Amino acid sequence: MRTANRRSGGRSAGVKTGGRAAPRQETTADRIKDYILGEGLQPGDLLPTEAELCEHLGVSRSNVREAVRQLTTLDIVEVRHGHGTFVGNMSLDALVESLVFRGVLVPGDDLRALREVIDLRLTLDLAMAERIVDAFRGTTNPELHALVKEMVAKATGGSPFPDEDRAFHTGLLARLDNSLVGQLVGAFWDVHTAVVPKLGVSVAVDLERTARAHGDMLEAAEAGDPERFRLAVTTHYEPIKRSLDERAN
Amino acid sequence: MRTANRRSGGRSAGVKTGGRAAPRQETTADRIKDYILGEGLQPGDLLPTEAELCEHLGVSRSNVREAVRQLTTLDIVEVRHGHGTFVGNMSLDALVESLVFRGVLVPGDDLRALREVIDLRLTLDLAMAERIVDAFRGTTNPELHALVKEMVAKATGGSPFPDEDRAFHTGLLARLDNSLVGQLVGAFWDVHTAVVPKLGVSVAVDLERTARAHGDMLEAAEAGDPERFRLAVTTHYEPIKRSLDERAN
Description:
2 copies of one chain form a homodimer.
Chain A: H1 4-7, H2 28-38, H3 50-57, H4 61-73, E1 77-80, E2 84-87, H5 93-105, H6 112-127, H7 129-136, H8 142-156, H9 162-173, H10 179-199, H11 207-222, H12 226-248
Antiparallel strand pairs in A: 1-2
Helix pairs in contact in A: 2-4, 3-4, 5-10, 6-10, 6-12, 7-11, 7-12, 8-9, 8-11, 9-10, 11-12
Protein name (chains A, B): FadR family transcriptional regulator
Region (Disordered) (chains A, B): 1-25
Pfam family, one (chains A, B): GntR
């Protein structure tokens, strides 16, 4: 985080973050960000062409091209080949990419990085319990029940169910009034599922138990029972936590 | 998150994330990541020169250069000018940059993005209460008390205290057995403090109250009292939350 200050510039270059106030030069990427802000553009809006940006900002083509690539990596802009360059969705993809790589890079230490990701997922799910239960109390959710049914069917047949699993968690959090929480949990889900196979951690055991725990979470939420919801969340993470414990020994 | 799959490749290109299994071409950035993994390099280790990477990977200089820039944005590699290119720390800087920009970009909607960041900080601080209190129970922490004293002194003089504030929160979380939580809270702290001045939200009011709440958090942790800790955390966020509510009206 020490370098956040250098990179997170924008409208006011002197913003202090991370305890440092390093004066910095405004980069071409900063100026494209300023342009987006100045024009009031929103995600999905079309940006000027490369040539137009060169002229507008008074910088070289290669400068603009590099800045666009950098902003693409951060999902601040999105290049759709043949269609143009657009304001991006500022998703958490960059977070996922860094964390996946870190998770794979430093596996020696008892899979610490993966443990931390799973611990954080569990923490957030438990912390959100009351709010999720409040949002679901007394509702019926056939689409989420269908996902649970599909997960249980796959688990019974010995197959994993990552797509249904992710859709279930996303669907649960979509009702919260905080979209960042849902995105963050989704990002950690992606890290978790991308790292697990690369590390050769077995999660085949207890597939069925994990699948059914989703059903318990949903029923507890619909019944308005936060305590039961938290219990189901904990059960849901038990197989992967046990698998990690076994690997550590 | 839809595109996480395309970008989060590495050792096994077929990893499924985000519910998609799009086959993808391995990019030069992926191959540099594979090189880092294959050689067992760790953060801070020196990478081969640009020329050596070109030869090793059989790609052009401009390809390598672009890939290095992309990986730099993600803090997967770090270029130290005049010294070489090193494996980076995989910090959450990219997350901060995207979120800061999003926070500034979409302020119309009752400062929703900033509200979400603050809500998430509060949620994580509360969720970690038991663990922080467990780590601090019965300890004495002169360096953290000194930070509180400095914050109160600055607040009394009408000055903000971002450096001490961040150091305090980082110090509190540094004792946890999950370094990712500390990094994430630090990242959200950076987003928060970078976005607030850009949006012109006043936080000058209640500076002193915020400063003193840090002291209450620390004393509650040392006294081993999670309930009192949670109360102090809630008090700590009240001024900024009230300021946001006033802006919304």
